[in-house]
Amino acid sequence: MRGWWAGVTDPELERWRLVLGEPASAMGALGADGAARDAALEWLYGRDGDNDQRDVRRGPGGRSGGDGASTLTTVDWLNDINRLFPQETIERLQRDAVERYEINDIVTDPAVLETIEPNPALLRAVLQTKHLMNPEVLRLARRIVEAVVRDLMAKMATEVRAAFTGTRARRPSRWKQARDFDMRRTLRANLGHYRPDERRVFIETPHFFSRTRKHVEQWQVILLVDQSGSMVESVIHSAVTAACLWGLPGVRTHLVAFDTDVVDLTSEVDDPVELLMKVQLGGGTDIARAVRYGAGLVEQPRRAIVVLISDFYEGGSTATLVRTVRELVEQGTKVLGLAALDEQANPVYDRDTAQRLADVGASMGAMTPGQLAAFIAEQVAR
């Protein structure tokens, strides 16, 4: 008796067939494109060691993408997925290839680098594997870094500069910007256009707040960034955030990367691509040493913000770290500890160390780059 699907012709059924693999072959034969997609998925996910535990086996009776998987090169696979899948799926497949299965030739093979479409997952992979690259490959990999950083800069620069343009005033404005929309005044002014049958207020005259310019004095913002392997997202976003802050009125930005060593990258802040190409991810972590270095950069304690971006797993002296943070706070310097600095600000950190720093006066939390810029702008405007 044939199954209710009666062959794989519906797109939804084909998706399930691709997800389930060969065990779902009773659903019917795949078309030419479907078979190619199945082979591409098998090339990547067929190397998953969990398949045996789940009784998903290759070969007779198990998942198989045909005999192409054994001869398919990385370049062939990338060409196939770019032809067969939408962009969102392509980026997910590439991310799994470099992060889950460590297929490093995606970012170390010149033939791949010449054709691959840059995306954030590949940027992370380049930063983690650039020590494996010869100069020619590194030159090609730089294209990925430049493209992704350019996109991040375009997005984040707007958020950062908006935080420094001024605070909302209660008086109305003729400038119409979504972020200054005055909801209450707009509703009051347009209540006459309420339609009870539709339960809607139709807006004929929107109203907006104006903004006052901020009068700012010179502040130092010292970003101390943990460059251990797990902090790659924070390193990327810190570099771009520092570049966005660079040159803003009232702000002088320092960027310091650390593991067990401390490297002052302030001279490269205005060029985040060059900065990221110099970062060396990995190694241990000596947070106390980095904070001592940052403390030595402070010129006017009450006009300084030290931002410590780390997972707070201290490989050095926790007692020295806590004591140095206490001294900074007592002299009037604002200390902000961030457990994450990517777009989602998902925190993974040593809560005990973070609590000890909070107990001596540091502000601890997790912020996106835009939120960090708003925090800095608020402090600078006081």
TrEMBL record:
Residues 51-70 are annotated as: Disordered. Residues 59-68 have a biased composition (Gly residues). Residues 218-377 form the VWFA domain. CDD domains: VWA_YIEM_type. InterPro entries: LolB, Uncharacterised_CoxE, VWF_A, vWFA_dom_sf. This is VWFA domain-containing protein. It comes from Winogradskya consettensis. The lineage of its organism: Bacteria, Bacillati, Actinomycetota, Actinomycetes, Micromonosporales.
